Amino acid sequence: MNCQPQVASELMSPTSSLDNQTAPAGEALRITEQDLDELFRLKHGDPETTGWSPRRRYRFGYHQPADHYEAMVRKLVTPETDWIDIGGGGALFPDNQPLSKLLSERARRLVVVDPSDNIERNPFPHERVKCLIEDYQTEDRFDLATMRMVAEHITDPPSVVRTLSRLLRPGGNVVLFTVNRWAPVSVVSSLTPFWLHHPIKKLFFAEEDEKDTFPTVYRMNTRRRLKELFAECGFEERCFVRLDDLSVFARWKVLNYLELSAWRVLRRLRLGYPENCLLGVYRRT
């Protein structure tokens, strides 16, 4: 099948990179500033009275990569949606409980599939299935599959995408949100012994539960590889964007301010930020 990119879109938002974007047909999947503003208020409340970090991001006009992912899923979940979330473990959206509740109640059906014990902590699925997605056997079909920060851990991508093709109805969408293989943090992570991953994540991201740290292999973490994998199984790319990721220094006020300032300068020069995540939407034909 022909999986050539559609015409280049306008910038999806001020926090998405300027290159390698795809315009969804009819602009149906375009994330607007209004979408992101509504999501911010749902998550954080009034921008002027929330905590210093989200307030500062808001004033700079910067939205985190996860915000774009959440806005995309919000667009696609309707009362007629049968939704399968893959690898979500203990949370649909770890930093957005109000949206998790809203969309789990909106969807007709929500199944979460994850081999980890942390799936038992997730309060929002209508059904929990504790296994690898490749091992999930069902006659049911879904309209939407979501994969949040899962792709970097998958050791057998062709098998996973074949399973998605089996599980989705024609016209169904996969929303995949993951790290960029060639972003600086991913490169450093791939060179760092696994036993050091949790201490480093705890330092930078305040991760406390070591059970939520998993080995990374980065076998489906570039646009080219994702397009190849999904095209081979009958999917077309509907939307793709690189999302600037300024999370490394988010815990420290001075470093956070300097990072946001550097990001703003790069934007004005129309240069991409080196640390970024990938967000793609793939439709089963």
Question: Mind explaining what this structure looks like?
Answer:
With 285 residues, this protein is an alpha/beta fold. Helices cover 34% and strands 18% of the residues. The protein has a single domain (25-182, 215-284), classed as Rossmann fold (3-Layer(aba) Sandwich). The chain is built from 9 helices and 7 strands, in the order αααβαβββαβαααβαβ. The longest helix is centred in the last third of the chain and has 16 residues, at 253-268.
Helices and strands in order:
Layout: H1 33-44, H2 52-60, H3 65-76, E1 82-86, H4 97-106, E2 109-113, E3 127-129, E4 142-148, H5 157-167, E5 168-179, H6 184-191, H7 197-205, H8 223-232, E6 235-244, H9 253-268, E7 276-284
Parallel strand pairs: 1-2, 1-4, 2-3, 4-5
Antiparallel strand pairs: 5-7, 6-7
Helix pairs in contact: 1-3, 2-9
